[in-house]
Design goal:
Elongation Factor Tu (Ef-tu), domain 3; 3 domains; 8-stranded antiparallel sheet; 6-stranded mixed sheet; 23 strands
Length: about 425
C-alpha cells in the first residue's frame, strides 16, 4: 500500500496531540499496553475521560506540563493506505523540532483552535511547511464544540488562511471543521455540522493523491562510505556505499562524479540481498565503477546527463534555531550537507521574512530564535547541490555551532516560492 507521511503544525494547545490520538484510537491502531497506560495516566490526572494526547506525548515532562516537546512518530494503516504521523511541538520554544518532523512529510496538518483563530505560530508553521516543500496542506479547525459548531467561525478562518496561502503559493489546501476531543469529522462525519459535506479528515487523507518520491527523478547518490576490504581475495575491490536519494541507476550507465567533474560507467550494483542490474530511490547500495577515480565520503555520484551544481558560495533560506546566540554576518559555523561536512562562514545577511505579513526586510542586522531569513554562505569545501524545489535532499542542509555541535539552523538552497526577493539570484 502507498505510504503517506504527515506532520502536524500549529500553536500550542490547539489540540495536535489530541487529534493524532483520536485518529489512532478511532482507527483501532492503539496497542493494548499503550491504551492501558494512557487510561491509567488519565485517572491520575483526575480526568473524567481518556486523555487522547497521552497516546502520543510519551515524555514525563510532556505529560506533566500538557505540552508536546519532542517529535512523536506514530504508525497506522487502513485498508487503503499506510500512514506515518509526526506529532510536532506547537510551543514557540520547540519550533526547531517542528522543522525536524516536517522535513520528510507529504502533508502538513495545520491545526487551528476555533476560539483563537489564526495566530502567529500558526502562520510560522505554515511558512516553514511551505519552505520545506510540503505540497499539501490540510487545515483542521479544531474545538468546534467550544464555539457551538458555528459555521461562520469556520468560514472566517478559512477566508483568512486562503488569503495567506495565496501569498505562499499553496495550491492544495483543504479545510475540515472538527472536534478532536469528541471525534467530530476526524474518522467519521459529524451530524453536529451538517453544513460541512466534504467528508472527515481520514477520508481525505486516504484519497489524497501524492507523487511517491517528493524529489526530482535524476539519479543522486551521496557517498557515505568507501569500501576497501584490503584482503588477498579482494585486493582490487573498491565500492562506494550510500543510499540513493533520487532516481534510478543501472549497470552500464554513465555517471558523473562530483566535485571531481569526472565521468565513468557503473560496473556493478550491490545490495544487502546481492548484486542487481538496477536500483532506485530509496535503496541502500554499493556501486562499483569502471575507472580509477579518487572518490571519498561527501562526494556525489549522479546521472551524467543531469548533473547538479558545484560551488563554495551560495544563497539559502534558513530558519534560525539557537536560543543562546543570534545569526550575524561573519559568523563561523559548520555545515552538514548530504554526507559532506565543512566549515562555513555567513558572508551576508540579505533579508528577514516577517511570518505574519510575509514582508521582507532587506536591512535586518541579525536573525533571532525561530526567525527566517536569506543568507549568503561561503564553505571551505565544494558543495554539490540542486535547488531545494527540485530535490529536497541535495537542496537542504543544517548548520552547527563549531564549539558545541548544537544544530543552530536548517537551510534550503535556492529561491523560496514567495516573498519579494528581487535581485536575489
Amino acid at each position: 500500500m502507498e505510504l503517506l507521511r504527515i506532520a502536524t503544525a500549529g500553536s500550542v494547545d490547539d489540540g495536535k496531540s489530541t487529534l493524532i490520538g483520536r485518529l489512532l484510537f478511532d482507527s483501532k491502531a492503539i496497542q493494548d499496553d499503550v491504551l492501558s497506560a494512557a487510561e491509567s495516566a488519565s485517572r491520575r490526572q483526575s480526568n473524567e475521560y481518556l486523555n487522547l494526547a497521552l497516546l502520543t506525548d510519551g515524555l514525563r515532562a510532556e505529560r506533566e506540563q500538557g505540552i508536546t516537546i519532542d517529535v512523536a512518530y506514530r504508525y497506522f494503516s487502513t485498508s487503503l493506505r499506510k500512514f506515518i504521523l509526526a506529532d510536532t511541538p506547537g510551543h514557540v520554544q520547540y519550533t526547531r523540532n517542528m522543522v525536524t518532523g516536517a522535513s520528510t512529510a507529504d502533508v502538513a496538518l495545520v491545526i487551528i483552535d476555533a476560539r483563537n483563530g489564526v495566530v502567529e505560530q500558526s502562520r510560522r508553521h505554515a511558512v516553514i511547511a511551505t519552505l520545506l516543500g510540503i505540497k499539501h496542506v490540510v487545515v483542521c479547525v479544531n474545538k468546534m464544540d467550544l464555539v457551538e459548531y458555528d459555521e461562520s467561525v469556520f468560514t472566517s478562518i478559512r477566508k483568512e488562511l486562503d488569503q495567506f496561502f495565496e501569498r505562499l503559493n499553496v495550491e492544495c489546501a483543504h479545510y475540515v471543521p472538527m472536534s478532536a476531543l469528541h471525534g467530530d469529522n476526524v474518522v467519521e462525519s459529524s451530524a453536529k455540522m451538517p453544513w460541512y459535506t466534504e467528508g472527515p479528515l481520514l477520508k481525505h487523507l486516504e484519497e489524497l493523491e501524492i507523487t511517491g518520491t517528493p524529489i526530482d527523478d535524476s539519479f543522486r547518490l551521496p557517498v557515505q562510505y568507501v569500501i576497501r576490504p584490503l584482503t588477498e581475495e579482494h585486493h582490487d575491490y573498491r565500492g562506494y556505499a550510500g543510499s540513493i536519494r533520487s532516481g534510478t541507476v543501472e549497470v552500464g550507465q554513465q555517471v558523473g562524479i562530483l566535485p571531481a567533474g569526472k565521468t565513468t560507467s557503473v560496473t556493478a550494483i550491490e545490495t544487502p540481498d546481492g548484486e542487481v542490474d538496477r536500483a532506485e530511490w530509496p535503496d541502500a547500495v554499493t556501486i562499483r565503477i569502471e575507472d580509477d577515480i579518487d572518490i571519498s565520503r561527501g562526494d556525489l555520484i549522479c546521472a551524467a546527463d543531469g548533473v547538479p551544481r558545484v560551488t563554495q558560495e551560495f544563497i539559502a533560506t534558513v530558519c534560525w534555531m539557537s536560543e543562546s546566540k543570534e545569526l550575524r554576518p561573519g559568523t563561523m559555523l559548520r555545515i552538514k550537507h548530504t554526507t559532506r561536512s565543512a566549515r562555513a562562514m555567513v558572508t551576508e545577511l540579505r533579508s528577514r521574512v516577517d511570518v505574519g505579513t510575509l514582508s521582507v526586510d532587506p536591512n535586518c542586522q541579525s536573525l533571532a530564535l525561530n526567525e527566517i531569513g536569506r543568507i549568503s554562505l561561503k564553505t571551505s569545501a565544494p558543495i554539490v547541490y540542486d535547488d531545494y524545489s527540485v530535490n529536497r535532499v541535495t537542496g537542504s542542509f543544517i548548520l552547527m555551532d563549531e564549539a558545541t555541535n548544537e544544530t543552530v539552523a536548517a537551510g534550503m538552497i535556492g529561491k523560496p516560492g514567495f516573498g519579494d526577493f528581487e535581485g536575489d539570484e
